[in-house]
Amino acid sequence: MIEIKNLCKSFEDKEVLHDISAVFENGKTNLIIGQSGSGKTVLMKNLVGLLDPTSGQVLYDGRDFVAMSKHEKVMLRREMGMIFQSAALFDSLSVLENVMFPLDMFSSMNYRERVQRAKECLDRVNLVDAEKKYPGEISGGMQKRVAIARAIALNPIYLFCDEPNSGLDPKTSLVIDDLLSSITKEYNTTTIINTHDMNSVMGIGENILFIYKGHKDWQGCSSEIMESTNKHLTDFIFASDLLKEMRSSMVNEHHQKAE
């Protein structure tokens, strides 16, 4: 579990995050959503230590990340897996070598064990047959799956995903969502996903934090969104007139069933 308490972040005289408190639960897909410029990317960077908060706490199972020494932070990062928006694979390494990279850097396994573990992770994302290919030889969706395999190679306790469906078609995005959701359950990870994808929000949003202009504006699950009275949230989620009509229809249908 990751908990943030009264988190604030300013750049010179501009406050980007203001007094945010939230809990991200283990074994669940925790989503951070909000408009561009709302502060969600800055929040993610504070969570993983790429930025230091101006004030407040970031607690990893009770351990205050902000107050840790440099060495302690390095050790904690070994418990994290990261999936970047661009996949961030090494073009000069094969798919198998990309997945082995964190094992080569941080594990005490011998070479045969590292190869075996990397193949297990590729099998988990259905990419064993691509292990000898290079990133430039596979599709964007396959690259994201390689990135997921690499992220879980060290059995992370915490999994961070920055716009994992960016640039993918809707069908491939659903594949990535299903993978992230099932891996979260399988490994009982605390998974935090920064996303604009409304399909992800409604499909796998078990715990959703909505950021509006640097403030925590709402937190709940996907089913609660449908009946939310938070105008900022509904305007964001149901931006088009068609989606607003669909929401109204679904809410009315739900009320009729309840009666």
Describe this structure in words.
There is one protein chain. The chain has 259 residues and is of the alpha/beta class. The chain is 42% helix and 24% strand. Strands 6-7-8-3-9-10 form a 6-stranded mixed sheet. Helix 3 (95-106) runs parallel beside helix 5 and helix 6 (170-187) packs parallel to helix 7. The protein is globular. 36% of the residues are buried. The mean pLDDT is 89.
List keywords for this structure.
alpha/beta, 10 strands, globular, 10 helices, four-stranded antiparallel beta sheet
In short:
Helices cover 42% and strands 24% of the residues. It has 259 residues and is an alpha/beta fold.
State Rg: 19 Å
- Kindly report the average pLDDT value: 89
Structure annotation, total helices = 10
Q: What is the CA-CA span between the terminal residues?
A: 38 Å
Would you identify the regions where 5 or more consecutive residues have pLDDT less than 50? Answer: none
Output the helix-strand order: EEEHEEHEHHHEHEHEEHHH
Strands ordered across the widest β-sheet: 6-7-8-3-9-10
Biggest beta-sheet profile: 6 strands, mixed
Shape call: globular
Strand content: 15-25%
Helix proportion range: 40-55%
How many β strands by DSSP? 10
Helix/strand/pairing category:
alpha/beta
